[in-house]
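Subject: Sanity check before I submit

Could someone independently write out the structure tokens for this chain? I want to compare against mine line by line before I put it in a report. The sequence has 323 residues.
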Amino acid sequence: MQPSHPVIDVHTHISPAYAAPMLALMDAVGVEAIVTLPDVGADLAGWRPALERVAPGRFIVFTAPRLERVGEPGGVQEILRRLEVDVRHGAAGIKVYKEFGLRYKDGQGRRLAVDDPRLDPLWRRAGELGMPVLIHTGDPADFWKPCDETNPRYAELQVHPEWWFGSGDFPPLEQLLAERDRLVARHPGTRFIAAHLASLPHDLDALAATLDRLPNLWVDLAARVGELGVQEPTKVRSFFLRYADRILFGSDLIRGVLGVEGELGPAQRHFFDLHWRYLEGNEPALEPPVPLQGTQPLAALGLPPDVLRRVYAENARRLLGAA
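---
Independent answer below. Compare away.
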């Protein structure tokens, strides 16, 4: 199935080495352009030229600053200097990984809080440059629950034990989200995209309240369709209708899913096909795109065309200035 409208995927992790097979996948599944998110501190000098050689205008690059440098002498100035360099190399936005708040420490060994005021110059500069900040804060709420058979995500945590945060060594999810929201509120001139439905796909009422409080916040769908689809479809559909201007499509596709050799395979096409069927179709028991996140069938939403146009691409064009 092809999507009914062009799609901009705002959340992928595809390096230039995988650009050619990724372009083939994009053409096969109806994705017009992608935002590719580099590793923290990646040198972007060669990224834009390499991607443009494969397909001009199809790849949008963000930068991922080394935020933990904030505690070093001159660290904030160095973060800002590197940002300007990456902008000259074509960076269109900033990516913040979930380690910010969970694992990053400052120069004194203290946890770097998401709303640490020492980083305010970075967020202000992003606003001045018109660069959206794609920020991943927290993770699924189940990752803070006991890591045993009672946990709905136990199978996933067995594969990724580093994703369990219930040991007491990490802040509660509620604290992390409160820090993020204070950060966003403090910088109304900067546009933030809260990755993974703001880590609130399990509580759409709380997510709606967050969006209502923070007009400069958007959310992406990356890797959270499985959590949405097991909820009452009427409620989920109403959420999409109400916040159609604030939701962006994202897949969280990483280079590894393209295969060891980087080939295009049917599994990746099927992955996107399930997303289009969930958002556009009416199937009452659709298989989830990522079975490791849960195998419970999803109830498709059947969103109207005007909502699909905005979620698929129009919102991203407005935020990114994409053609």
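---
OP: Matches mine. For the report I'm noting this point. Strands lie at 7-13, 31-36, 59-63, 93-96, 133-135, 192-194, 217-220, 247-248, 253-254.
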